[in-house]
Amino acid sequence: DLSGNLSQSKLEVAPNSVEMVELQLRNRRGLSVDNMKPFKLKSHISYAFENQPTLEFPFTYYIKPESKYLLKKTKSKTIDGDLSDWNALPYSMGDKNARDLSATFDVAYDADFIYVAAEVTDNDIKVMPESSPWTQDYVGIIMNNNTTTKSALDVGAGWFRESLYRLVSPEKGTIASNHHGSDGTPDDITIVAKTSTTGYTMEAKIPIDFAQAVQGKDWKTIRFNLLIGDLDSGKGQELYLFQPNWRSKENRVGSGMFFKK
To answer: Is the dihedral of CA 6, 222, 146, 261 positive or negative?
Structure first.
């Protein structure tokens, strides 16, 4: 759906320097951004050592114009699964192959925390209170705090070592993963999910230190994704309905970037 032209197809980068290449994209079919398939950019990079073999490695990036999501400032939230202190949740996601499963959500921040709220619509909730979240229905959040360029260009290698990754099932108020990444993921994360008449809700708060630990006090962005685990098929199915799985080949440059307003 997209064709692309590079200002240069090959270049040599001098030591301790940076070179920029411009990629011009054209919408060949006049499709909306949401419906177009991404442009596939293949790159082959080599590093020429003195008196040693050349180091070579390939990269593949999937690129298309991405929505610029706003991370808005909010008042302090009580994390109890009750979403009455939130306005209408602006972001929506749904599974084309499972009409009974969809969600709306929002991400916001104040001086102390980053907040996440989600409302999942599911007509067949499967909950086993004594089991791990991934063995039942769940909602999950993935959040990366690296600087804008590094986070947007990440192709998934070591992603969960560098990101906050949490799963929670309805009626569970405990953290589902004890993962603490090298980014200094804080210990005092609160995440709660509760059943409702149409499915279940989720609220979470993450100390603002998570963003500031890497980007400093004047932090700018986070990269965010929401996923749902559904047992309707009789076995666990992990669905990335907002952005693609960042560890898969569907990962797109800059998908899910939220910019602090």
So the answer is: positive
Residue 117 in contact with residue 193, Cβ under 8 Å?
Answer: no
Under DSSP, the state recorded for 252 is B
pLDDT tens digit sequence for 209-245: 999 999 999 999 999 999 888 877 555 677 887 898 8
Say which DSSP state 160 is in.
H
C-alpha–C-alpha distance, residues 37 and 68, integer Å = 18
100/31 Cα distance (integer angstroms): 27
Strand pairing report for 98-109 and 69-73: parallel
Tokens of 115: 């907040």
Residue that wins the pLDDT comparison between 108 and 193: 108
- The C-alpha atoms of residue 155 and residue 140 are separated, in whole angstroms, by 20
Q: Are 190 and 205 in contact (CB under 8 A)?
A: yes
Label residues 209-223 b or e (16+ Cβ within 10 Å = b): bbbeebbeeebebbb
Pair of tokens at residue 247: 């560890």
User: How far is residue 74's CA from residue 84's CA, in Å, rounded to a whole number?
Assistant: 14
